[in-house]
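Methods: example folding runs. The two proteins below were folded one after another, and each record is reproduced exactly as written to the output file, sequence line first and structure-token line second.
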Amino acid sequence: METQSRTTLDKLPIGTKAKVVKIVAKGDLRRRLTDMGVILGTELRVEGVAPLGDPIEVNVLGYHLSLRKSEATLIEVEVM
């Protein structure tokens, strides 16, 4: 069985596909992320990173979503 790598969304290079396994955010931020489609089991792909590393653009559920690096650190993913 292949071991899959877990990390946080902010550490993924452009082009990487991953699946959300845990959202560490609490309260309003957690609600906002889930409202935007970042829920457990959702597959996403890193589309781009701004020149200074913030924000990060991901494709989730067929649309592009920009997240602050501070938000992306709260999303644990499993690299696919």
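Second run, written to the same file directly after the first:
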Amino acid sequence: MNILLLGSGGREDALAWRLRQSPSVETLLAVPGNPGIARWAKCIAIDPCDPKAVVELARAHAIDLIVVGPEGPLVAGVADAARAAGIAVFGPSAAAAQLEGSKGFTKDLCARACIPTAAYVRVEAEAEALAALDKFSIPVVIKADGLAAGKGVTVAVSRAEAEAAIHAAGDGPMVIEQFLEGEEASLFALVDGARAVVLASAQDHKRVGEGDTGPNTGGMGAYSPALVLTPELEARAMREIVEPTARAMAEAGTPFSGVLYAGLMLTAEGPQLIEYNVRFGDPECEAIMPRIEGDFAELLMAVAIGGEFDAPRLSDQSTMTVIVAAEGYPDAPRRGGLIEGIEAAERVEGVTVFHAGTARHSSGALLAGGGRVLAVTAVADSFANARARAYRGVDAIDYADGFHRRDIGWRELERQS
């Protein structure tokens, strides 16, 4: 089949890498792609959030399936336009993408469907938000109600910090919610209407600094599987959170199709939903893709067209992804730094380096073009060995302007020590 992949980050590089291994794939295009994705696909420089341009390109290249990587094109209605043109899409409609596009929408759905999640209040303006703080104890969570690429959340540990977060957001919709105690895990499910099956689990590291300190980022590393999400907890999360969400969306006339990413807090009372994403997480996707066996493209097509599909076979191996970011990330990343040593990193057994934010200079040199620059991913027979390989890969890279956390997977390391 001919596939068009939308996106330009590390997630899309991992998706392209995995799709290129699918026997059913004949042609793979990427919009707009990046230098890493160009190893697996032909990259075409158009706007992935322009429904008309995407559909025209798909028609011109006889595309059978569009795979949407980031959330932006979904919220922009690209999937709707493609389906209207008779092209299969792996990714939800704009209406269903509200599960990520509006945190308030998702919290209200949880309330209606009795899905376990933190107590919350929706507000529309700064003064209303400040008044609503009185209903919550500290710590408290402040969320911008919109797309934020994983960074629109403040966990305020003082009243002053909460007020500062509200003031920074200004007038506009926000969600204020109860702080949940526990450990976070990510659960990915393939959803087609009211049907949902488990894809894989992972654990992300959102904070920029070691020891989970500093501001939230798009993610500084991940590993899979998330062993803290035991089979019993995974089944409970599917039964109490993911499956009721799929049914509620279908009953509302906005059925979900694609991958649904549930960010969970594993509390003493059981799994509770933190938030949904309506696409693969990044960097979780980089950690998950090497574990998926079989023809991945056929699986995505089956979900896209409402065909028969089962949960994919997963490798028993463990994976670890470490993000190498540009100095100054997430606030003001330094762009343009020279990157060398990727080939040396990939000579480490089990290591693949996905490009998250790179650019190719006219001279051919590889430069940093974003905040998160590389996603160094390793596969091994155990968590400890995958972790060791990933850091050997990171250490082989020569990128003077880069930094990374040395403690990815620290919770699992403590559990195993």
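Comment on the second run: The first strand starts at residue 2 and ends at 7.
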